[in-house]
Design goal:
Layout (H helix, E strand, L loop, with lengths): L1 H15 L10 E8 L1 H4 L16 E4 L14 E3 L13 H12 L5 E8 L13 H5 L4 H9 L4 H15 L1 E8 L10 H15 L9 E4 L13 H5 L2 H4 L3 E4 L15 H19 L29 E9 L4 E9 L11 E5 L8 H5 L2 H10 L7 E5 L16 H25 L9 E6 L1 H11 L7 E5 L8 H4 L3 H7 L2 E7 L5 H13 L5 E5 L5 H12 L19 E2 L11 E2 L4 E7 L6 E4 L3 E3 L1 E2 L4 E8 L3 E9 L2 E3 L6 E4 L2 E8 L16 E9 L4 E9 L12 E5 L8 H4 L3 H10 L7 E5 L14 H22 L9 E6 L1 H12 L6 E5 L8 H13 L1 H7 L2 E6 L7 H14 L4 E4 L6 H12 L5
Helix pairs in contact: 3-10, 12-18, 20-26, 21-22
Amino acid sequence: MKSIIRFFAIAVIFLTGQNGYSQDPNFHVYLSFGQSNMEGAAPIEAEDKINVDPRFQVLEAVNCPDLNREMGKWYTAIPPLCRCKTGLTLTDNFGRTMVANLPKNIKVGVVNVAVGGCKIELFDKDNFDNYMKTAPDWMLGMIKEYNGSPYARLVEMAKIAQKKGVIKGILLHQGESNTGDTLWPKKVKIVYDNLMKDLNLDPKKVPLLSGETVHEEQKGKCASMNKIIATLPQTIPTSYIISSKGCAVAPDFLHFSAAGYRDLGKRYAEKMLLLLGYKTNNTNDPFIVQAPVGFDQLNPAVPAGKVETVSYDSKTVGTVRKATIYTPPGFSKNKKYPVLYLLHGIGGDEKEWLNGGSPQIILDNLYAEGKLEPMIVVMPNGRAMKDDSATGNIMAPDKVQAFADFEKDLLKDLIPFIEKKYNVYKDREHRAIAGLSMGGGQSLNFGLTNLDKFAWIGGFSSAPNTKKTEELVPNPEETKKKLKLLWISCGDNDWLLENSKRTHDYLFKNNVPHIYYLEPGVHDFKVWKNSLYMFSQLLFKPVDESNFAKYTVLGTTAQTNIRNAKYPQILPDNRVIFKVNAPEASKVQIDLGRKYDMQKDGQGAWNLTTDVINGGFNYYSLLIDGVAVADPSSETFYGMGRMASGIEIPKRDGDFYELKTVPHGEVRIMKYFSKGTNSWREMYVYTPPGYETSSEKFPVLYLLHGGGEDQRGWSTQGKANLILDNLIAENKAKKMLIVMLDGNMGNTGGIAGFGEETLKAFENELKNGAIPFVESNFKVATDSKNRALAGLSMGGLQTLYAGIKNSNMFSSLGVFSSGWWANNPKLSDPQYEFIKNNAQSINANLKDFWISMGGKEDIAYENCKIMMQKFDQFGIKYNYSEYSGGHTWPVWRHDLFLYSQLLFK
């Protein structure tokens, strides 16, 4: 009887909502209050009245006959949004930004009750009468519009709003009239607490966003108040401070201009969107990427699942063991359910999730929102030993071994017990496993090696017990066929992050679909609860692999970042997040071949998320007020004729230039006095593994960089040494020296200095400077069959010129992304004439004449195409290779990878 009464009580509460109304959960309401900056002190401009989305509405708090608006009714939020004759307010762009970044089925409503010049005491319902006695006459008129009590009017309108929507947050901008009042945070708390009580709201679900006054850097007259405002979260833990730094101000230095209100309103919205779990950088596709505020808070108005402890006989351990079971709301013995096995960490047991993670509350709330497939959750003790308590030395070898032994207990004892006791599906498609820390490692170990038992696998902050991914996924194609979902998540400051990253890197290279989810956090339940919230919603229903890249809060720091730099970050789909601190700048852009405008936040940092960027190495620059500079967060590389930033973006087929556990050669920086130029010059020389101890003489590849680069390029940008290390280790390339020359000979004529004299100068340096120095100082063979020449772009022209004219010196030539210019016959015609007249000897001398391009998007493509047509006419033998990617280092790395395998064989 008691259970029946409880069921009906919960049903009534659930149907009526916490305020007794049938609320639309997709109508989000925000209460706004404060003084003049919330009221709106800037003129309303034309752009503020047009293109207002009807999804953004205002609840009129006063009667405005001139606007044809009645108090207590909703209207499209065309300003003014406070009283009838107030100006533009921050709530205008707050609402616009919100609806632009939320799904189309969500509407946003604001209720704005503000009084210019008032102290916070005006909103204290128990003491505002005393404040009113001292209020100036001009303020009394405004207060009168609210029937003598702005707070009462705010509550009155909020209750009307609750009939239609759900209050999601409270916006406050006040403090100028309380400047210097250290009790201000406590006074704000009185108002906030009263609103929570009078409107039956949960503060853990309804945050308070409070904005700064005009900043001191902008000569704000009340800027000192910002230090007090900054302490508000110490008094109200669910409050957040919105920076005003950089928001344009009015001449009185008390208020913001229209542009300033728009900027400030956008900042309020961006914070609120984050609290709701949405991304704010992709307005075309709103997407929840993290749990919203209040997701783990008990809601008495929603049906609750049941938590119980069960005992099962473990033949593996030889004892009776315990597990915690969660059954969903409305659980029926007559219905079949899928099962999630949820594992704990090294210091926990079958109660750890229950005590630290509140999974039952998280799941209950998700069921109430219709976001979850009904499932049974089994939380076992993952320490398979007779004394499985989390006591004593939890790191003792036998206790650690017990976590590995649990695999047998799980498969042979626990799963059969669950399938006998509960009405559950017994196929792999309806069975999931996930866990935190040590349990995350177990989940990956057990799940990926038993894909006949599990189709849904999640590792949250997986511990070092995680096996090498090569062991877990020895056959990527087979794994892809069986997996429904593989989820890997971790906090960005978790000391165990490397385990998750290692697994992700292998899966990425082998094109195994998975979600790699990074978020701000450490090794704690804040991260794990969020992982459960996100992961559980994907289980036992169709999943769209095309969305996997969206499921992350943060990107992975680029390997080209300087030590400890958090940005740039690379998202799973190869978009890049940049953050640059330049508080005094008026405009900042990222130049990645395409110029991107960055957006300034309240802390003086400029932010950007790019489109998808090609994998591999990419040059980029910061443009700060039009000046191109290197990003202090990234390594710099000599390119584009100066030091520029570079970013290395993961590339699935980039395994050939990765640092691996193979014998490594050396890159030596050699200064030499060149007899060719009668000057000191520099070359980089790669010597292969075993060079020092070998008595043999090695062949040599002379390798040339492109325009705007120098001898460092092939080593730093091109990774030539790693490419050869890996090829030699696989017996795919001969051991050789690679001599990386400085091809810059000065601008002595022709287009960009590539005239006949420049090319002739390089030929002279090669023959009389570089080659003699190498052959005098290194153990190298000195005949033509052991000598090759190759180069990219400008280096390709140098190879064409010096190599073809001296084909008797080389057995092979490699021309990457280059070709004689079709529009410069003065330079090219003599070269073609020489080639035509010497075709027979060129073909006889060269074993390999290898030409490659980066596809049609390569800037040299047409020149090369015309050149090869000429070669065909002259009967020149060559091989052509094409690798899509344009005129970029990823292409040239691939060129070296292929070309070097042909040499000296």
